[in-house]
Description:
Elements: E1 2-5, H1 26-29, E2 32-37, E3 50-53, H2 56-69, H3 75-86, H4 90-111, E4 117-118, E5 126-130, E6 138-139, E7 142-143, H5 147-158, E8 163-164, E9 173-177, H6 182-189, E10 192-193, E11 198-199, E12 202-203
Parallel strand pairs: 1-2
Antiparallel strand pairs: 2-3, 4-5, 5-9, 6-7, 8-9, 10-11, 11-12
Amino acid sequence: MLLADEVYEKIIFDNAEHVSLASLGREIAARTITVNSVSKTHAMTGWRIGYAALPGDLAKEVTRIQSVGTSAPSAISQRAALAAFNGDQSHVAAMASAYGERRRYVLERLARIPLLSTVPPAGTFYCFVDVSAALEQSVNGRVLNDASALTEAFRALAGISVVSGAGFGATRHIRISFAVAMDALEEASTVWNGSSGTICGVEKDEDH
């Protein structure tokens, strides 16, 4: 069986095209569970609506388990989801375009810092940043030995919140969200001093 998480199907960049796994043929469709939600495409995170498409016999068993495992979403949330699906979809393209501008801004700022590197995301609204070159440095007497220590330094020294990659199995990476407003990204970028190659006062130095 294949599990396809397609929650970011509409948030894609650089002329990328989303292809649903189950659309590739009957054989693969019969082995695929596709999961999605209204959280990303329609910015309805708090409504707690997810859905899945899967082969009929398996759907019956999954429904049987789900019915006793979780409570049903509220009627209001279900109506809101229907409105999102059936209503004007122009907001989806507008939102993806806004994310694209913020993505460009973040990637430009990251490119100015030799301590950081990232692969431009083709979808989603996060950058997963390799911070290996910034580690093993000392800030205020504390050695930044992993991404979690670096995220704490961001918060303590600059008031910026980024997420450690430790929860994703990548202890030398951080995750930066560009789902926030542009003015927040601009404010945060004042700490990413590209001209001197520093982050919160940490810089690459051959002496340490």
